[in-house]
Amino acid sequence: MDNILLAALLFLIPILMFLKGTKKTSYSLSSTTTTVPPGSMGIPIIGQSLGLLRAMRANTAEQWIQERVNKYGPISKLNLFGKPTVFMYGPAANKFIFTSNMVANEPSKSTRMILGDRNLLMLKGEEHKRLRGAILPFLKTESLKRYVGKMDEEVKMHLDMYWHGKQEVKVMPLMKTLTFDIICSLLLGVERGKLRYELLECFEPMMEGMLSIPINLPFTRYNRSLKESSKIQKLLKQIVQKKQNELIKNQNNTSFEQDLITSLLGMKVEEGKQVMNEKEIIQNIMLLMVAGHDTSAVLLTFLVRLLANEPDIYASLLQEQEEIAETKLPGESLTWEDLTKMKYTWRVAYETLRLFPPVFGNFRMAARDIEYEGYLIPKGWQIFWVSAMTHMDNNIFPEASNIDPNRFENQSSIPPYSFIAFGGGQRLCPGIEFAKIETLVAIHYLVTRFTWKLLCADNFFKRDPMPVPTQGLPIQISPRKVYEKSL
After folding, report:
1. Which of 18, 127, 200, 302 has its CA 20 to 30 Å from the CA of residue 470?
2. Domains, the chain, ranges and CATH?
3. Per-residue pLDDT tens for 82-128?
4. Using CA atoms, how far apart are residues 421 and 235, in angstroms rounded to an integer?
5. What are the binding residues?
């Protein structure tokens, strides 16, 4: 597919260049520095996009980045996904990217076109503050405590449907199913059935084009993702309108434990005006679906993989979970208090995120001309950050390639803006607690109900754009005898 795309683009480039004429990218030089970082911009429009995508799919993206660092240093220019870009790395660079008011959030064009322009990723200033203020209360710890039982119910139902009675399963597809079911339940308030299935059928192909070259031709991932995005928005519009009608009919009889859509619809400001309009609700729900689906599925999949490969870590984690399980009556759900005892399990999750971050990197945008480390970053240029560059730095994490969950026993000892699996600063992922509860509940039931071993010996994974293990990580599973006796 890459070869076909490259051939098509090479055919189109002369036409596009002719239509654009000879006009070059321009920017005002408000800074005294006029030198942009070193590096090559590559082929017009394409730049280094195909090279990065190929490296990600071959699981050599870190080496691809390191070669640039070796050649140009820790800051360099390139062309990614149709835009001039500056790559930079290191804790200081991460802090600058995540906290500076000179840097704006700027997802790739493909992401913007697929998710829309009225969600938290796209908006800035007061509009961003308004939307974040509406969504964040639902995702705070105090609110999520009420939903532990709902997540517990979804996880147990999932295991009963897809794991019990099986000898072999593929972990990655099942974890995607689990996280999607949790999202549908807690964020959308959509129960199992036809509508969930329709959403899932559109959602996975939409995700495939989130990081793609934004050329809208019939055979591209980008084209297909745009079509699936449109279908999802229509389905979500139906859900929103249905819940709006239900709120009008039952104004005085709304459930305390509402899904996020109902919560957002019920929020009012002065004069009865809704905090978020229909378009904003739909696009922000889509954003949260994307943020909470593959990322959590990747974490859970690689946790299963890590526990299969590391018997000592598995034994310590199992001991912690068994101690909690012994305090529960048959069929009794986990509580928030149970989750607070899973400290070692969460350290294992953090170490998994350090080694296998779901998001390889992302983009910001220079909101104005920026002088950084003696170079000019022109207004409107993308700024590209990569999590693995600090996660695997031996100066920050000694023997970084070794697996050691106890690195996170004292998190204050880790230099700020070095572990960035959840971003940082003002753009810190608002769904951290949601992901934590989801992960801890799922791992509790997996390790207390099953044992497993890997059926693939190569341990290979590609990024497409998130990590995907060989064959979806097939494992052989057996019910734990302790669990069978309790039934």
Report:
1. 200
2. 29-486 (1.10.630.10)
3. 889 999 999 999 999 999 989 887 677 888 899 998 888 788 778 88
4. 31
5. 429
Known binding-site residues for heme equal 429
How far, in whole angstroms, is CA 222 from its chain's centroid? 18
Q: What letters, b where the CB count within 10 A reaches 16 and e where it falls short, cover 43-71?
A: eebbbbbbebbebbeeeebbebbbebeee
Joined together, the tokens standing for residue 308 give: 């299969």
Contact between residue 430 and residue 136 where contact means Cβ atoms under 8 Å apart:
yes
Distance CA 254, CA 316 (A): 44
Q: What are the Cα distances from residue 199, in Å, to 88, 161, 183, 185, 453?
A: 37, 19, 11, 13, 32
Lowest-confidence region among 292-306, 390-404, 421-435: 421-435
**pLDDT of 287 strictly over 70:** yes
HEC secondary structure over the chain: CHHHHHHHHHHHHHHHHHHHCCCCCCCCCCCCCCCCCCCCCCECCCECHHHHHHHHHCCCHHHHHHHHHHHHCCEEEEEECCEEEEEECCHHHHHHHHHCCCEEECCCHHHHHHHCCCCCCCCCHHHHHHHHHHHHHHHCHHHHHHHHHHHHHHHHHHHHHHCCCCCEEEHHHHHHHHHHHHHHHHHHCCCCCHHHHHHHHHHHHHHCCCCCCCCCCCCCHHHHHHHHHHHHHHHHHHHHHHHHHHHHHCCCCCCCCCCHHHHHHHCECHHHCECCCHHHHHHHHHHHHHHHHHHHHHHHHHHHHHHHHCHHHHHHHHHHHHHHHCCCCCCCCCCHHHHHCCHHHHHHHHHHHHHCCCCCEEEEEECCCEEECCEEECCCCEEEEECHHHHCCCCCCCCCCCCCHHHHCCHHHCCCCCCCCCCCHHHCCCCHHHHHHHHHHHHHHHHHHEEEEECCCCCCEEECCCEEEHHHCEEEEEECHHHHHHC
CA distance 105 to 300: 28
CA dist 460 → 57, 356, 364 (Å)? 11, 12, 30
Distances (CA, A) of 102 to 31, 377, 465: 13, 11, 28
Note the pLDDT tens digit of each residue in 192-231: 889 998 998 999 889 888 877 788 888 898 999 999 999 9
The first and second tokens of residue 199, run together, are 């959403």
pLDDT at 256: 46
Q: Which amino acid is at 158?
A: H
How many other C-beta atoms lie within 10 A of the C-beta of residue 250? 10
